[in-house]
Amino acid sequence: MRISALFSLLVMSIGCIAQELHIYNGSEYTAFYRGMRNHPFLFSDSVNNGDVFYDGALYKNIRLNYNIADNQVYFRYETLGYNIRLLNEKISYFIINGRKFENHSTNAELNEPFFELLYNGHLKVYAVHEKFIRQPLKAEDPLFFIQYNKYYVAYKGKLSRVNNLSSLLSILPDKENITRKWVRSQKLNFKKHPEQSIVKVVEYADKNIVWPSTDIAAQEVIVENKPSVTTRIPSLEENRLLEFGNNLKPSVKSTVTLAGYIKDGKTGESIIGATVTSGAGSAVTTDQFGYYSITLPKGRHTLVFSSSGMNDTRRQILVNDDGKLDIEAEVGIRRKR
To answer: 317: alpha, beta or left, given left = phi > 0 and alpha = psi -120 to 50?
Structure first.
């Protein structure tokens, strides 16, 4: 009798926790591919370790999988022993086996696939992976999935499809250093190895092109000689570069996590619902304790902490490893014209 009561209490507790965490509110997921020659998943037919930023919260170290035939992400709820479907429109990004996939959909009804980030610099390289069912040559043979990959390059927020070297060169703002002769010297083969070829050309361009100063996130604050009412002069704290981790220490991680608490600098109270944004396109909000956690590519970023009724707070950071950054926000002052 006592064991039965304890079990009921455990089930009720799990249900309460599940209601608190939005990720556990999805429906059960089952992929149908029995009798097929292969599976519809990107990696394998089993779940893998990963992270997902879902409905405004980051869930780390959960068991994920990505079905690229029906464009469905799900995770394994080990406690109850079944898979839970995630709603694509609530996914900002997810990471499986160290590979990051971003949501660039502009219309939730289109069920657009996720974009895998292959290279992140002034230029970004993305891949879209899809599988389709094909009929075998012999009627007695089973159906099978065939995978197709599409590649895109992003510059200044615009995504452009890349099919060959010509389409790639047309995107680059400065083509003098990227010539067909250089490509041939690298023995790149766009037909056989499109992903490696595109990434190598973009990486070379990123390091050799003289980029405009407007492309550098650290130079986003411009102070005029004669400040007006709307001109914002950065403080000394905002100009100081905060470094997390040692860039000389080798690390296999391409992304890091920065976390901390945002509080009212005068009262010390936690600020709920404050927004943390970065030049890399990441954005998170604080929870009921004023706590935030944001995942960033390694390197230099400008973080902006904002909340209603408070002055925006900016911090210049250089992240090489995970770190903690607490913020004390100031009450906004309305100036008279």
So the answer is: beta
